[in-house]
């Protein structure tokens, strides 16, 4: 079963002058009891941050927090002692665990575009930890590239404490890819740009598909497209 969610259904938040954010799930002042999470995927924010601005240090706990940098560069500092920059094409994961604080700043003169995703971890009380990797995912072609995963059969990915995997795909016009899944798994798709067909349903820029009880996910690009696909456990017992 595929649930199509158009881009217009996203919640648009501009809480401060330097931030434009689209919330795909309930977050901050946006609360929809029918849109809290999809499996362990609890937050998906599509954020644009103006030059020389950003999020000052703030706390988190009991979440796996993943940031994908699509354009620009993030300057990151946290209470674990990490002080790093995360440029376009790199991926960051923080295990908030028992608690940490961090800040995310755009210290450049160019706009910053990121996706930030939060996952409910597969266990509580984890020690806070950090990982960052250059996966150069924005330049791949016509394949699903794993970026972050808690499924240890995958190599050269960022690890997270969730039985989930984040993939990225850049598809040229008329190219097709197939993702094999199981009815006990869920599949989430969000289109960055272009137009695709997912099991026959058309998705355009910033549209979503949330899929359950499927065996195969077939994706074909009607126009050159970029998309994120997330493979998720369907039941809380498998998070």
From TrEMBL:
Residues 155-232 form the Quercetin 2,3-dioxygenase C-terminal cupin domain. Pfam families: Pirin (PF02678), Pirin_C_2 (PF17954). Residues 14-118 form the Pirin N-terminal domain. Gene3D superfamilies: Jelly Rolls. CDD domains: cupin_Yhhw_N. It comes from the Bacteria. Coiled coil: none annotated. InterPro entries: Pirin, Pirin_N_dom, Quercetinase_C, RmlC-like_jellyroll, RmlC_Cupin_sf. Belongs to the pirin family. This is Pirin family protein. It comes from Hymenobacter algoricola.
